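Worked example

This section walks through a single chain of length 222. The input is the sequence exactly as stored; nothing has been trimmed or padded.
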Amino acid sequence: MNGFAKGKPLISSSISRSRNRRSRWFRPLLWVSSIGLLALLAWCLSLYFVITKFEGTPKPGTPISADVGIVLGARLWNDKPSPGLRERLDHALGLYRDGTFSHFIVTGGLDSGGATITEAEGMRDYLVGQGVPEASIIMDSLSRSTYENLIFAQEIMRQHDWSKAVVVTHDYHGSRAADIAKKVGLKPVQVSVTESHVLNMAYHQSREVLAYTKWLVTKLFL
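Given that input, the structure is written out below as tokens.
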């Protein structure tokens, strides 16, 4: 009985030392984790600001002239442009009819949404249905990302001896598209954007923060 009583302080002391050791490493870890979370939040907010404030380059109201309009692809629905993609195409049509450019490059391969034709083919069909001569539309039916869209479009431009392009997309996507255009060597960098009245912008802007981050990391290795 006396031996048990004498052992209790030893056990209590061991538990106290163990708690002290945990406290020594837990507090710095909590501090580092908090700083990391704040840094991540600051990064996301700064990118979100860049994404949402982009209005095009050059700024709206500045005249744009180009040989070709590069329309960045998006999902098809039942082999036809989705409502969001139609917004991009209609914006490009407005520029075309205003004389900003005389030819289209439509971009995008076969997506994963069950389409039986490529995004580029669906975009071409839509433009032809709006009165654009098929001869004025060149397709890139292989690309699967914005980077590939612009790399392949640039090669098409070389083949046709076109030197100036304007990239057409949505405003939430415009800043990244402009940065990619600069990286691949399009000069001057011209990106014309349209707002969306059909897309869930909270979703697409949030998703764009992740896509932009991925692009900035990828760019380091190109």
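What to look for: The CA atoms of residues 97 and 132 lie 10 Å apart.
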